[in-house]
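Sequence dictates fold. Below is an illustrative record:

_____
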Amino acid sequence: MTGKSLSERIGDFGHRLAVEAHAAWLAARDPRVPWFARILAVAVAAYALSPIDLIPDFIPVLGWLDDLVIVPLGLLAVRRSIPAPLWTELHAAAETASERPSSRAGMAFILLLWAGLLYIVYWGVRTSPWH
């Protein structure tokens, strides 16, 4: 039997999405990228790299639907709004970075950011005059 198994193809797809999300994050920080593409890249990269989804992953089928639809469409929009030579450069940098160990400090930062946002919402609800 030739070719890759389904699990290998899914793993490759996940790796490609992670590299594209990292390239989007690099694009958001690059001053050569147009401002609209930078804002879109921040939103897509934050959503793709965040451990919190619109639809939780434990909900059968729907949980993965947002990861399989929203993230690739967002990355496609980012990719099309950035000039091709610049995207190639950013993608190569992201691919190189994917070969290095991951950052636990980055994960901790994202989790603290979400915790802070949830606390602000909680505090806003608790102190609102309608509560």
Notes: Residues 6-100 form one domain. The longest helix spans residues 6-28. The radius of gyration is 17 Å.
